[in-house]
Amino acid sequence: MMDESEYDDILDDWFIESLKTYRDLHVYQLEFPTRVIEWTSGKTICVASYNKSTKNEILELSLPRKLFAEEKKGLCAERDFKVLHGGFSSGPVSVLKHVPGTRLIVTNDGLTSDLQVWNLGGGESDVIAKVASVQGGEGTPGGVKMAARLSPQPEVLHGCRGGDVRLTRLSTGQTLYRLASACEERLTRLHLLSDAVFLAACANGDVLTVDTRTSSPPQLAPAPDSDVWWTDASGSGLVRVSASGQAALSDPRNPAGVVGRARLAAGAPCRHPDDVTVSWAPALDDAISLSGFSSTVQIYDTSSWGSEPRDANPLFEHRGHGVCSLPSSAEAEGGAVALTGHVWHPKASRTLVSAATDASLHVWDWIDQSDGR
Could you give the CA distance from residue 318 to residue 343 in angstroms, rounded to a whole number? Predict the structure, then answer.
């Protein structure tokens, strides 16, 4: 067992080292861990706990002001986050999506396919209140994936399996579209390419391209190999990462064609499959991030990946959750602290927020040592 002085020494050494690798790093401790981190604006996020035996908090937090100051203030382990709005869910919150352009969020408990719609509050109210429910697929188990849009009214794309995806208008609960497919694979991602076209990524690595304007069956892009896969897509690329650490890049307009491959130094996925997150950087060319394989968030540069697989080491690793966690937290979790999720800032190129099983929440702006930025 590690005594308190040894832990303090390790923490001090890491913070000193981090002065060279982070422009900003802020550490916050939630009461309960979260699997969801969703931007509600450029300076605010929404998180929620997933405890099955108690009520679960849903919080909208403002990020530290220092993060957005013109002069960077460096590392900070203080509680610089501020609770703006809060509410309680009677069930766990395993999935949460903000509807762009609104003060609405949509959640799922991971136990059923039903959705809950919440108003984040504002003006004179600081309460996050449930305003509606949306029924999911009949007899469909939990594990919903979602994508939300405002077109012209709030709508959410949701489903648990490839053959049970639907588009629902939140104001009325009306089903605007339902995917007719025999695919029964569990979904790992839904991604809207446009108002009419979306991708449905499955756990076996298959990707369905669906055009809601036609009754034709979806186009199927089969998995690169037989394995469990996690997927993300952006306007410029689609990336799939397998449980064995294999990565494959495709053009989202042609998911069947693989244009880049790599063997990532990621290790093996740990704990819960929903804790694995792979994500394209929205404001940094050719960068992806990966968490859920260890107590780190890894950043990879995909620009040199070619048709033949190559070994790829991370461009950067955020090790803060594992280093900063108290020894008692790791013991309570039955081992090392693990990541439960992370998100990129929508506009700041190297800023991310990450969360772990010890209820820690970090926001960090990393430095690319290869170019000093």
Answer: 13
